[in-house]
Each structure stands twice: as structure tokens, then as C-alpha cells.
Amino acid sequence: MTAEPLKRFSRDDGPQARPGAPARPDTARLVPRTARESDLPELRRLDQEVFGEVAYPAFLLRQLFDMYAEHFLVLDDGTGRLRGYVLAGTSALRADSWILGLGVAHDRRRHGLGRELMVAILDRLRRSGIEEVRLTVEPGNRAALLLYRSLGFRPEGPDGGLRRDYFGPGMDRRILRLDLAARAAAPQG
Q1: Model confidence, pTM
Q2: Whether 54 contacts 32, CB under 8 Å
Q3: Beta strands 162-163 and 132-137: pairing type?
Q4: What is the DSSP code (8-state) at residue 36?
Q5: Which of 62, 64, 81, 139 is the most buried (most CB within 10 A)?
Q6: Strand, helix or coil at 189?
Q7: Residue 70: which of 113, 124, 114, 115 has the closest Cα?
Q8: At what angle do helices 58-68 and 40-51 cross, to 10 degrees?
Q9: Alpha-carbon gap, residue 122 to 85, rounded angstroms
């Protein structure tokens, strides 16, 4: 399955709108861009939609934006609503990064947008000199595990990367790792 580039994505699978006709909000094109301070209320809404009770508190989302704005990408539908985001936290002293959040609005899933966001952030991290990227994923989230593995992420450490109670009792996670330096040096085929 090939993901359609974000700049061409349209949710409408039916007949296309007439040329020159204004786009309806449900068929608006998604534009990937760096997050802005003015996006914070909408980012909070989206994060709550995607992650529910484990969404970032507003104050923490604000601080993450302040710290990592250059590695905070959003999907803007042109109507004021964000439809996805990816956030990478980077270390100032080492060449490593963590994917701290990847979310796509429920009505925009299964169209390759998570993959497109990940490809965009990994490219940005590589250009910034980041050599290693890690992330955590819920062990039962098969779709996310398949996505990350297809991008080259592999379990870190023993037990397939499984860390029991990583976020607290009953909140197990898998830690996955991607060596961007090795991936960049590998021949492209």
C-alpha cells in the first residue's frame, strides 16, 4: 500500500469538487507544517480526541511546544482544525530523539497520514543531525507496531523491547529504536 502525499490528500473518496469551487471542510486538503503557538488550543483538542484520558495536560503540551517547536509538525486542513501531529523531543547534548506523540484524527485514519508524518519528522531529525530515534508503543497497538517496523524501528533490548508498567501499573509499553545514521548510510535501492 502506498500512502498518498499529504499535499494531495483529500478525505473525499467520491466525485471531486468542481474546479474553482470552494473546498468543503470535509474535503479540505491537509497541509503539513511546523506547529505554531496559535495552534495550542487546537492541538489540545486533537490530543484529547486521539488519546483520551492519557492525553497531555494543557500545561505540558505548552511546555513541549516551547522546548521542541522545530520538531513539532501538524496537519492543517485549512479550516482551523488540525487533523494530525507528530512531536519529537530532542536532546541538546546528544544526537538522539524520542517521538513523544503521533496522532491522527479518527476520521482521517487509514489513509497513510501517520506514515507521512513519521517520514516527515524522521527526515527533519536526520537533517538536524539526529542519529538515533526511540519511541514507545502500547504492546497491543498492532497498527502502530506495523507502521513503526515498516519504517525500520526495531525493539530495543531484551524481551522484544517490552517494559512492564512503563507508565505506571498496567501501562506496559514496547520501546522501539531506529538508527538514523545507519539508515542514512545504507545504500538506497
Answers
A1: 0.80
A2: no
A3: unpaired
A4: -
A5: 64
A6: coil
A7: 124
A8: 120
A9: 13
pLDDT, tens only, 25-34: 443 578 789 9
- Residue-wise pLDDT for 154-170, tens only, equals 999 888 899 999 999 99
Identity at 20, one-letter amino acid code: G
What is the tens place of the pLDDT at every residue in 40-87?
999 999 999 999 998 999 999 999 999 999 999 999 988 889 999 999
Residue 81: CB partners within 8 Å, gap ≥ 6? Answer: 25, 42, 105
Place of cell 548510510: 185
Q: What is the pLDDT of residues 123-161, one digit of tens each?
A: 999 999 999 999 999 999 999 999 999 999 999 988 889
Give me 74's grid cell.
501538524
Cell of 59: 500545561
